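Re: [help] complex structure
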Amino acid sequence: MQKTALVKALGLTFGAVLMTACASKGDVTEGEATQPLAAVEQAGEEAQTKGVEAQAVAGEQVEAAAAEAQAALMDITTFYFDFDQSTIKADSKNALIAHAQYLSANSGARVVLEGHADERGTVEYNLALGERRALSVSRFLQANGAAAGQIQTVSFGEERPAVMGHNDDSWSQNRRVEIKYQSR
Amino acid sequence: MRHVITLCILMLSVLNAKAELVIEITSGKQSAVPIAVVPFNWGGDKALTENVSQIVANDLSRSGYFKALPQESMLSQPHKQSEVFFRDWQLLKQDYLVIGDITQKPEGGYAVQFQLLDVNTKTSLLNQKLTGGPASLRDIAHYMSDRIFAALTGLPGAFSTKLVYVTTNRERTRFNLSYSDADGAREQNIFTSKHPIISPAWSRDGKQIAYVSFENGRSEIFIQELATGKREKVASFKGSNSAPAFSPDGTKLAMVLSRNGNPDVYIMDLATRKLDRVTKHYGIDTEPQWLPDGQSLIFTSSRIGKPQIYKVDLADRKPKRITFEGDYNARARITPDGRKMVMVHRSNGNFHIASQNLETGILQILTTDTQLDESPSVAPNGSMVVYAASVGDRSILAAVSLDGEVKFRLPSKYGDVREPAWGPLLK
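Output below.
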């Protein structure tokens, strides 16, 4: 929860612009390549039109904020899903794009994507569902610049719950993909 | 690719985490037939380690077909037909009577003479002598139950069969593949791991178990020989390897592999290890199961967006949807006669076990008093379905008859019990 707050605070401007950019493309479907960097440049241009005097300083602030926001987004490594769904949720996309950009910029970085399901339904179907979730994240990362060779996927189905409860809140925390960096 | 790993059957000392299942019957048939199993005569010096007549009475009661008379209600305790006063048993409204006598064999072990009597016709229906070694009393009792059940119902008894299932501690840091009698007694762990174990499946001859182990960080399929503990990794392709199912003739193993990027059903020839891909679809295809003729499979697929059961003939490879009621039908198992299937079915948001008649398509929900029901497995005589369910915050095994009338539970004293698989009838 702290991380979420941090991201909100640091990435307010950056995130808001990014969201707008995404939203302007309509509801982004899974695997669609968005171009957040272009969005940031656009934002910069828009900011420039506001005041010529503050141009240089404002630019530095935007860059610093963007870098911090990027770092904060990288701290988000768990992504949640709806029941029996492997479609990436809209609120996961900014952080996943940050991971994709990092992987793109660091060709030596390697990740394992661990897919999980909640306990409802059958064990084997949930194993397949966890795998589809991991594959869905893998495709999204690749569409946003990561290379296939940087990503491995594995599913644990319903076998490794994040929390042990038997209610909606626990289930929502267990339907997830975790990004685990093997090398940075 | 072929790794042969010999695994010593772990010694009892490391298997202290035993689940110890204890049966609780929660519902019986209205039409259950009254039967009295009289405590057997034993002339030996030392008390016997097993109460044979009680095991028989429990077996028969658990089937739901019979209602055993409590020992304290008996007016007399005959051991021979000449000692039986049929009027006593008629008065107690009993239809059948079982009497017996246990003797020690000179060379060690036991001989059990038993008789099944019809109280109304005053005739003997079975009169047999069963013998076994020093540790065989429980086996003798289950075998006797099988004979009595078969004589009175015409169905083979399944009391001598075995179960395998997975037990875990609450923290999910230890997983055991456990093996026990059909009544949960004599549990042994045949494989233990710090990593998940799922989907145990029997070979038709009852000698091997295929299962999925995550011991190497992802799902791989192993086959283990029960008698020796020897095991072999048969599938460790890229991606997931899961849901093994032996073909009826034992030569093939159906399985689910995601080596081509998405879970699909394959058949492996066990002699050559050659793979034959059965489904090609971007949806989830999993939980394959053979029909008794070995010519077709049923499996779960999400190809319409929600899991439903499909049937595919191996000749034409065209999957046909066979479940239409409800938005979640998965993990189907076929009854031994091939006429019905049981599966996990969701209705009103609850997961229950349902049966579907394969000819008429009529669906019947069998379970109501447990939650998050999963992993149904049919007894080899088609009488009962064992499944895993959530009761309180524990995962337990429960069983229900194919008509939904008989219900019993096998709660564990320790941890969670999941993924039961009922073994075949053995000769």
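Confidence is low (pLDDT under 50) at residues 1-17 of chain B.
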